[in-house]
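Aim 2, interim progress. The first record below pairs a target sequence with its C-alpha cells.
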Amino acid sequence: MQRLLSFSCALGTFALTIPMPLGAAEVPTKDSIVCALDPACANPQPAAEPPTRSLGRGVTVQKTTTEQPLAINLYINFAYNSAELTSDARITLDQLGGALSDPRLRSFSFLIGGHTDARGGAEYNLKLSERRSEAVRNYMITQFGITPERLVAKGFGKLQLLDPSRPEDGVNRRVQIVNTGVEGARK
C-alpha cells in the first residue's frame, strides 16, 4: 500500500508517495519534512527534466500545476474528540520539531493548519481544529524552543478537505504545515 503526502510551492504542487501506510512506525523523517518545506530543496527540476524526482528511500516528488506555498500534511493523532496529543502524535511532532529547528528552516515562519473530516457540525469542527493546531504550536514552542513569532496556529475545520470525494475519511483529519516565508518579511 502507498500513502500520499502532498506539499506545494509557488512553482507547483508536489506529492510525496511513501510505499507503506503512514502510521506510528512510518513517521516522516526530519529530513523529508525539511525538504518539503525548504525552497532550496523542494524546487522542481527544470522543465526539460521529467516532472518527478526521487528523494530516496521510496519517496518521490511529483510536479503538478497548482501554485501554492510549500506545505506538508502530517497525520497527527489526537485523543478522540479532544486536542490532547497522543504518544503517536508526539513521535511525528518530534520529527517536525527537529525539522523546524534545522538551520535550513530557521529563518522561515510557518502556519500550522488544523483540519477535520466532515463528520460533525461546522462550528464544532472549526473549534476542534483550532484547539488541535494550537496544541501542535504549543508543543513546538515548549519542546523545541521554536520562537512563538515563527508559528501561527489556525483551524480550518472541514473547509479544506484533502479528499472531498470522501468527506468523512480519516485522510482529511490532518495538520498542515505551510512555509509562510522568511520571518519578519511578512506584515
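The second target in this work package is listed in the same format:
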Amino acid sequence: MYTNIDPIEGISIISKYIDLYQQELPPNSPPKEFIIQLLELVMKYNIFKFGNTWWRQLIGTAMGTPCACAYAMLFFGLIERTEILPKYENRLKLYVRQIDDILILWQLSEDGTNKKKDTDDWNEFKADLNSATKLNWIIEEPKLVTNFLDLTIYIGKDNKIYTRTYQKPMNLFLYIPSHSAHPPGLTKSLIYGLSKTYFKQNTNQEDFLKMIKLLFQRMLLRGYLKETIAPVFIDAVKRITELNENPTRNDAVETKTPLNQLFLHLPYHPRDISRNFIRKNYENTCNKGKSSFQNYETETGTMKINKFTIAYSRPKNLRDILSPSTLKETEDIQVSNFIK
C-alpha cells in the first residue's frame, strides 16, 4: 500500500480529513497548514542515499519515515468513514483494517433467497473500494474460512467464529539454533512467547496443542535436546493454562524502568564470565560491597545509580558477513559507475 499512494492524492485526503474531524484533534494541536507543510516536505522531498549516489523519491509513501503508518491508515480511513461504512452499514457486520489488510463480515439477505441482490451489492461494494482512490484492492470472494494476517478465521457448524494459527507454506521456521552463541534465556523466552501467542490465537485446545507439538519438533530439528527443552515446554503450557483459569492472577509484576539506570553493553560469549560475577565485582568495586546503590560524585555533580543492568549483544554471524545490508564500495567499484 505504501508504494502505491500517490503523494498529491494522499496529502489532499489528509487535508480533507483534518477539516472534517478537527474536533478529534488533541488540544493545542499544530494548525492544519503547518501539518500539511511538513507532510509535503516529507512525502515530496524524501532524499536517500544508494551507494555513492543520492536520489529523490518521486512516487509512493516516503521510505523510512515514522509517519508512514499513520499516513497510510488515515489516507483510506477518510473514504471508510465518509463513504464505505455509511453506505454498507447493513451489510458490514464487521470491518477492520490493518494498513492494507481488510477483514469484513458480510451479511447476506435475511431470508437467504435474494441471491441477485446479494451479488449486486457485493459487486458494488468491490467497485466502490477500487474507485475511491487510485489504489487497486485484491478482494477475495466471500467464504466461510479465510486467512487474515497470522490467523485462520472460520465459521463453525454452530455459526460461531473460531480462529487458529496460520503460518505461510514458505515459512522456514529458522529459530536460533541450539549451538548458536546466545544467552540461554533466549531459548526460554522463545518457547514462552510463542506458546502464549498460540494460546491466544487458537480457539480450540487441540489446535493449541498441535502448534505446541510443531514448535517442539521444529526446535528439535534446529539442534535442541529433548531433555533440555521439554521441561520448559511443560512449564510454559502449565503457566499459560493456569493463568487462563485464573485471569485475575498477575503473572508478571509490571515495573517501571528507573531513570538512573546503568547499562553495561557486552558481546555475548558462552565461555565468558557470568553476569553474577560481573555484578558482584561491580558491587564490591564501585558500590563498596553494599546491596543498595550509592550516589557518585562526578565533575558535573552527583549521579545516583538506581539499577545496574548487563545488556548482551550478539557478535556478527554468517548472515551479517554473507548478506550485508550495506554496500561495500571501493574506488574502482561504485554505484555511480553502473547508473547512467
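Residues 68-87 form the longest helix (20 residues). This observation will shape the mutagenesis plan for the next reporting period.
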